[in-house]
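User: tokens in, sequence out, please.
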């Protein structure tokens, strides 16, 4: 294993100058000073700008296309407060119970399949999420509730007979 390289003298000088300028800007903007008024303040001059040959050009592969930026990979995640509002695209709450063989079968199919872009399946613990079960009137495990960005229910179904990702996707509004 190679030892980490030390920063060059130029990089260290640039960091020191940048820090000094940031502190000076903070002092000017806030009117605060840790230096008594009768002591002179010295600020190091900034390092010269790097030459054009030293600046890396951005790579085309780094800049996403508009189509790629609009597309979010499909995902299967555990429920946590705020996740509905923070998740873009189509969202399905999967009320899952670890003791339920149908729930385990659906989860296995979800994990073995590819979830489409802009679609997120949010796994909700059927046994502990009493408030969510009441909010969406869920009485059976394997219930899927499709919600909008604010958490309002759009559609609901029980996937007890067809425990596949295809069935879950087909039931989406």
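Assistant: Sequence out:
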């Amino acid at each position: 294993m190679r030892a980490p390289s030390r920063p060059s003298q130029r990089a260290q000088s640039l960091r020191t100058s940048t820090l000094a300028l940031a502190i000076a800007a903070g002092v000017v903007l806030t009117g605060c000073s840790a230096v008594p008024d009768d002591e002179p303040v010295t600020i190091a001059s900034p390092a010269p700008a790097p030459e054009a040959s030293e600046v890396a050009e951005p790579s085309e592969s780094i800049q996403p296309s508009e189509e790629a930026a609009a597309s979010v990979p499909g995902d299967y995640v555990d429920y946590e407060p705020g996740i509905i509002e923070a998740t873009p695209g189509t969202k399905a709450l999967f009320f899952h119970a670890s003791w339920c063989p149908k729930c385990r079968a659906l989860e296995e199919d979800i994990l073995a399949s590819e979830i489409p872009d802009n679609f997120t399946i949010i796994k909700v613990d059927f046994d502990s999420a009493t408030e969510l079960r009441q909010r969406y009137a869920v009485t059976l495990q394997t219930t899927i509730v499709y919600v909008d960005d604010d958490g309002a229910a759009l559609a609901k179904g029980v996937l007890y007979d067809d425990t596949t990702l295809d069935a879950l996707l087909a039931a989406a509004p």
